[in-house]
Amino acid sequence: MTTAPPRTAALDLETLRADFPILGSRIGDSALVYLDSGATSQKPQAVIDAEVSFLTTANSAVHRGAHTLAAEATELYEDARATVAAFLGARPEQLVWTSGATAGLNLVAYAIGNATAGRGGDEARRFALAPGDELVVTETEHHANLIPWQELAFRTGAVLRHIPVRDDGTLDLDTAASIIGERTRIVAFPHVSNVLGIVNPVAELVALAHAAGALAVMDACQSAPHLPLDLPALDVDLAVFSGHKMLGPYGIGGLYGRSDVLEALPPFLTGGSMITTVTLDEASYLPPPQRFEAGTQPVSQAIGLAAAVRYLEAVGMPAVHAHEQVLERRLRDGLRSMPGIRLLGDAAGVERVALSAFDVEGVHAHDVGQFLDARGIAVRVGHHCAQPLHRRFGLTASVRASAALYTTEAEVDVFLDVLSGTRAYFGVGR
């Protein structure tokens, strides 16, 4: 068993929470207890102000004009790229702006499909798939890191395989080693499961992928807001994340890629802003990241995301992680000790983020969610875009509580206290 993490006074939560206007809200007669940060995080005033400031003082299309506003907007936009890339341990040219993680994963899947169709020339040929080639995912995937690979397999004749999850929620690495082999071309996995909260063994998965000559593709949506992250050090080939889960705006996210991978991939979306020369018959494309950024760009959103990153950096990701580890243990211990609660993936001795999904015996997840909401507590209910994982545990839905840097221990205690009365309220327990 792991030992309890030390309590931390590193975060001045009273001051920090004042930066988030929505946290002072009330739901009916109750103070808001927001435990749905795994779905979307709340935004500090600095992020809101950054977007408003751009829109009111520098709004202009980027990379398209020679006038003063256009130059200022372009500089802010590319500075934002550099800021977010550095937060991930990457260089600016290794970060492609997308509308979110889903768009990033579809970009990769369709680019590989284009390579299979012969686009991209000799450099892209390394990504081409043949019938019988294998794409490997895990049983824990969010649908965004599953369905694009299903579709790619359908279009190319490749075979989709999966790494199973054990009863305790950990990945079966023995089976992974047996299925990742000479026909494997892609191994896609989440850094952190959005249902189980477990930090997956990235080093082992990447080693298996690279030993087979396959690309390692990581979904970092549930790790980027909570863990110090260095994507090049993790040795993944490609990784995606979403801004709205890490204090940033909606409609912005990113695709990180090793330079040699991005430089070889053909584009997916095409149009303006990603070309060098166009004739009526053909076009030549810019190098990454612009090659993958066709059309009008999410300028204010990128600037807002950079403000979110600066906020996280000012707080300090080690301090964020330490605080959330206290919350994680408090949340999980409280749920584990509660009669009639079944935690999903309750593995011992593994690293986690402060996110727990559970089933309340005898009460549907949606009823639990309504019961909590009536008392001001916001949680997630449903399959969390992970139907195969829920099916693995014999469920169609669960309740998920997820914390962030602004969550307090007192809020976790309020949640646990109210949840403890759920079964009695519905007449199925004491």
Q: Biggest sheet, in brief?
A: 7 strands, mixed
Q: How much helix is in the residues?
A: 25-40%
Strand content: 15-25%
**Mean pLDDT, all residues:** 96
In total, how many domains does the architecture comprise?
Answer: 2
Q: What is the CATH architecture descriptor of the largest domain?
A: 3-Layer(aba) Sandwich
Distance between the termini: 30 Å
Number of alpha- plus pi-helical segments: 16
The CATH topology of the largest domain is what? Aspartate Aminotransferase, domain 2
Structure classification: alpha/beta
- Strand line-up across the major sheet: 4-10-9-8-7-5-6
Shape: globular
| Number of extended strands | 17
Computed over alpha carbons, the radius of gyration is: 22 Å
CATH class identity of the largest domain:
Alpha Beta
Give the CATH H-level superfamily of the largest domain: Type I PLP-dependent aspartate aminotransferase-like (Major domain)
How would the blueprint of this fold be written?
Elements: H1 13-17, E1 26-27, E2 30-31, E3 33-34, H2 45-57, H3 68-87, E4 95-98, H4 101-116, H5 121-124, E5 134-138, H6 147-156, E6 159-163, H7 173-179, E7 184-190, H8 202-211, E8 215-219, H9 231-234, E9 238-242, E10 253-257, H10 259-264, E11 275-278, E12 283-285, H11 299-315, H12 317-336, E13 341-343, E14 355-360, H13 365-373, E15 377-378, E16 380-382, H14 387-392, E17 398-402, H15 409-419, H16 422-425
Parallel strand pairs: 3-15, 5-6, 5-7, 7-8, 8-9
Antiparallel strand pairs: 1-2, 4-10, 9-10, 11-12, 13-14, 14-17, 16-17
